[in-house]
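for the writeup, i need someone to sanity check this before i put it in the appendix. the sequnce is what the collaborator sent (i think, or maybe the updated version? ugh). structure was predicted straight from it, no edits. if anything looks off just tell me and ill rerun, i have time this weekend
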Amino acid sequence: MHIVVLVKQIFDPDVATTVFRIDEEACAIVPLPGVSPVISPFDEQAVEAAMRIKDAHGQKLESEKNDVKVTVVTMAEETARVAIKGELAKGADEGLLLADPLFENADAVLTANILATAIRKLGDVDLIIAGRQAADKDLGVVGLGVAQLLDIPAITYACDIEIDNKTISVERVLEDGTEKVQTQLPALVTISHELGKPRYAGLRETMRAARKPINTWNGSDLGINTEIAYGRQHIEKLFIPDNKVNCEIIQGDTPDDVAFQLATRLKEADLI
C-alpha cells in the first residue's frame, strides 16, 4: 500500500505576531531571524493518521517487513527539506519536494493541479491524506481539488481511519457528532484535529531520517515547461491596519440630557 501525505510549510502559528514585520514594498511577511517555518498542524495530524495505518497494518503481517509505504509531499522552496525531515523522523519513508519558481504565488487551484500531476507521476497511490485545511489561510479546498482532478472519492474531517483490503472506513466529524462512511481505494481523506496529538520523533528516529531520501521535482519533471498563466495570487497591498479609535465621553446633568446628546450625535452622523 502506498500512502501519500500532502503537507504545507507555514509560519509558526504559535509564535507571537510581534516577531513578524510587514514589508509593504514587497507585499510580504518577514519573520525575525531565528523564527523557522513549520508544517501546518493539521498536516502533522495527517502524517500521524498515515503512521497509525502503517502501524496497524504492520501488526497484521506475519513477516517483519511492513508493506505500507508513506511518502510526504510538499510544494515549497528548498528550505522545506528540514521540515520534511521532521516528518520522516516520525516514520514516513520518503519525501518529495516540488520546487520551482513557476510554482511561486500559486493559488489553491494551481496548487491542486501541481500536486495532482505529481501524484500521477508517482504511480500506484492507494490513499492520499491531507489536513482538513492549512493553518495559515484556512481555505480547506486544495485536498478536495486534488481528489477531483484525480477523479477519486474524497472524505473530509476524518478522526479515525480503518482499512480492510481495498475498503476504507472513516469516522468523520459533524457539527453534532460523528458519522461512519466507507468507500473504495484509491481515495483522499482530510484529517481533523479530533484525530489526536501527533507523535514525537525520538533521537534514534531522527538519526534514521537523515538517511531517508527526499526527491526534488521541478516544473520540467512534471511536464510544466512554460509560464503558468492561471492560478496566480497577486497581493496589491499588505499592511498592518490602523486600529486607532477616537472616543468621546458625553457628559450631562441628567441621564435624559446624556441620552439626548447621544441621540443628536448619532443623527448628525447619519447612524440613526
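The first helix runs from residue 41 to 60. The CA atoms of residues 81 and 97 lie 7 Å apart.
thx in advance!!
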